[in-house]
Inverse folding.
């Protein structure tokens, strides 16, 4: 009987300690839930402003990209004009040389005919 009495006391002490741990865990869980709720409320209050700022920043970025696209188009147009002008200048500069080559070739042909006719 004495052993049963001690066992009951030990089991009762363990149950009390377990109940204390359970109560402590419950208090901590309630505190954590309150902290989570506060963070959620803060995020909910802050989020619309952040989303609006992000929207404004994205719109500004898009405007700048459109400006950059227009600049690139202008650079491409100027580059194409410069290329066409350079080609034209090259062709114009080569006209005398081309004419001289053609004239030289004709003279050579005439000279070779004259040599054949004499010889």
């Amino acid at each position: 009987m004495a052993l049963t009495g001690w066992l009951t006391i030990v089991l009762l002490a363990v149950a009390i300690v377990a109940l204390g741990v359970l109560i402590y865990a419950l208090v901590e869980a309630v505190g954590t839930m309150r902290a989570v709720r506060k963070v959620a409320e803060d995020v909910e209050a802050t989020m619309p402003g952040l989303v609006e700022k992000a929207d404004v920043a994205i719109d500004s970025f898009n405007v700048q990209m459109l400006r950059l696209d227009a600049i690139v188009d202008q650079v491409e147009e100027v580059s194409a004009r410069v290329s066409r002008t350079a080609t034209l200048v090259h062709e114009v500069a080569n006209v005398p040389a081309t004419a001289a080559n053609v004239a030289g070739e004709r003279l050579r042909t005439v000279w070779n005919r004259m040599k054949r006719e004499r010889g």
Summary: The CA atoms of residues 95 and 101 lie 10 Å apart. Helices lie at 2-118. Residues 2-118 form the longest helix (117 residues).
